[in-house]
Write a structure and sequence with these properties.
Layout (H helix, E strand, L loop, with lengths): L6 H10 L1 E6 L3 H20 L6 H4 L9 H7 L2 H11 L3 E11 L7 E4 L13 E7 L10 E3 L11 E2 L13 E2 L9 E2 L6 E5 L5 E3 L8 E9 L12 E6 L8 E2 L9 H18 L12
Parallel strand pairs: 12-13
Antiparallel strand pairs: 1-9, 2-11, 2-12, 3-10, 4-9, 4-11, 5-8, 5-10, 6-7
C-alpha cells in the first residue's frame, strides 16, 4: 500500500485513540470536492429536495452522491484505514459536518459507538477529512487521549437546540478539559479516531464555514446488534461474514431510486439510533 501508515503511527493510534494530522489531498483536490458539494446542493434543489439537503448529506451521503463514494475510496485515504483495520473494509456511513460562520452549534462530549447499535467493537474507525481550515476558532473537534480504552459509558440525552448530535447526547462522566487535544487541520488533512474516544467540538466564531466530511469504516466482522437490518458498501477485500446488506455506489446525484433506498436505510437504522430515546429525535441524526 503506497500510503500505509508507519508502525509508530499505528501504535500512536492504538495508544491514544486518534491520529492526526495526515496529509491526504492537495488544494486542487479539495477545491474540486467543494465544487462537487456546491453542485450537489443545486441538484438537490432541481430534484425538489432543497429543504432536505442539509439532512440528506448529514448521514449516508455515499448512497446519494457519487463524488462522496469516490473520495472515500481514494487510495491515499483507504490505505491509511487499512493500516489499522486490515484489508477487508466496509463503508458504513459518510457525513458532512458543516458549521456555518459565527454558528453557536456545538457537539457535546460523547462516544460515537453509543447509539450506532454496533457494540463495543474495535473493528471500526472514523476518518474525518477537513475541507476548510479547522481550528479552535472555527470549532474543531477535541479528543480526550486514551479514553477509548474505557467501555461505552451511559449518556444523557439533552436534546439541546444548539447541539449537532441527534439527541444532544453527552457522556455521563467528568471531563478534564485541560487534558483535551484540539484537532487542528488544514484543508485536505485527515484525522482518524476510535468510536469509543471521548470527543466534542465548540462553536464556530470564525468568518468562514467549517466543513468536514466524516467516513465511518468497519470490518465485515462487525454486526448491527439493535436494528433488524443494516447496510454498507464493500470498498476493499471480501466480506466472508455477510452481516450487511451490500449497496452499490450511486451513478448520479439524487437519482430517485437512490433517494428511495436512502429513506429505507435511514428508517431501518433509526431503530438503533433512537433506541432508548426519552423524546422524539430531531432531524439532524
Amino acid at each position: 500500500m503506497q500510503y500505509s501508515l508507519a508502525g509508530e503511527q499505528v501504535d500512536a493510534y492504538r495508544r491514544n485513540g486518534y491520529l492526526f494530522p495526515i496529509d491526504v489531498f492537495g488544494s486542487g483536490q479539495v477545491a474540486a470536492i467543494r465544487a462537487e458539494l456546491e453542485q450537489a446542493q443545486l441538484d438537490a434543489a432541481a430534484s425538489g429536495l432543497e429543504d432536505e439537503f442539509s439532512q440528506l448529506v448529514r448521514a449516508n451521503a455515499q448512497y446519494l452522491l457519487p463524488f462522496v463514494y469516490h473520495v472515500a475510496t481514494a487510495p491515499q485515504l483507504l490505505d491509511r484505514v487499512e493500516s489499522i483495520l486490515g484489508p477487508d473494509l466496509l463503508l458504513w456511513s459518510a457525513e458532512f459536518f458543516i458549521k456555518g460562520a459565527h454558528s453557536e452549534r456545538i457537539v457535546s462530549w460523547h462516544q460515537d459507538l453509543t447509539y450506532w447499535g454496533l457494540g463495543e467493537t474495535d473493528d471500526e474507525i472514523t476518518a474525518w477529512l477537513a475541507l476548510s481550515d479547522v481550528n479552535v476558532e472555527s470549532g474543531c473537534m477535541r479528543f480526550l487521549p486514551g479514553s477509548h480504552h474505557q467501555k461505552l459509558l451511559p449518556h444523557r440525552d439533552t436534546f439541546a437546540a444548539n447541539n449537532l448530535l441527534s439527541r444532544g447526547q453527552e457522556v455521563a462522566a467528568e471531563i478534564d478539559e485541560n487534558q483535551a487535544v484540539d484537532v487542528v487541520l488544514r484543508p485536505g488533512q485527515l484525522s482518524l479516531h476510535h468510536g469509543r474516544i471521548f470527543h466534542a467540538s465548540g462553536p464556530n466564531s470564525s468568518d468562514q464555514d467549517r466543513i468536514g466530511l466524516a467516513f465511518r469504516f468497519l470490518t465485515p466482522a462487525v454486526k448491527q446488534q439493535v436494528a433488524q437490518r443494516d447496510y454498507a458498501m464493500q470498498v476493499r477485500g471480501i466480506d466472508a461474514q455477510q452481516n450487511w446488506i451490500h449497496v452499490a455506489p450511486p451513478t448520479r446525484n439524487f437519482a430517485p431510486a437512490d433517494v428511495e433506498l436512502y429513506r429505507r436505510i435511514r428508517a431501518d437504522q433509526s431503530l438503533a439510533l433512537a433506541a432508548g430515546a426519552t423524546q422524539e429525535m430531531h432531524a439532524a441524526y
